Amino acid sequence: MTNPLTGYSTATNVRHALYIVTGIAAVLLTWPYAFDWMSAGGNILNPITFFGDGIGPGGTAAFLSIDMLIAWAVFTVWVVTDTVRIGMGLKSGVLFVALSYIGVSMAFPFYLVARERFLIRNADQLTSPTVRAST
User: Fold this and answer.
1) What are phi and psi of 103, to 5 degrees?
2) pTM to 2 decimals?
3) Over the stretch 72-124, which tens digit does the pLDDT of each residue have?
4) Which residue has the higher pLDDT, 57 or 134?
5) Alpha helices in 40-58 (DSSP H)
6) Read out DSSP for 58-86?
7) What values do phi and psi take at 2, rounded to 5?
8) Nearest Cα to 50, choosing from 80, 60, 40?
9) Closest CA to 80 of 67, 70, 94, 64
10) C-alpha angle 128-116-78 in degrees, rounded to nearest 5
């Protein structure tokens, strides 16, 4: 059922709420460790140092750091190209890349909400055939 005020279905709103709660939980669960690392001299804006410090100890930390580095790299490329492709614009893509410095686990679900709501709002424009004038 679609809410007449928002234009979104109940299932969509529930899914988006789950995404947002997950993103907020990710920030709350991860940032205490980031603050500890930064207070010890780490620079969150330097991905080389950030991932290097995670890989250094080896084992599980290295596995998770390398896995997250690859996921982050794919996210940054995908989100920029996707925002341009669907019409959200390059600035939106860059915004979500910037938010990924807070955490990919926060930026990704927030991007999914923004993307889906953009696509729903613009469904008519995205599916309508383009009429071209004859020259």
Assistant:
1) 160, 130
2) 0.82
3) 999 999 999 999 999 999 999 999 999 999 999 999 999 999 999 999 999 87
4) 57
5) 47-55
6) -HHHHHHHHHHHHHHHHHHHHHHHHHHHH
7) -95, 130
8) 40
9) 94
10) 100
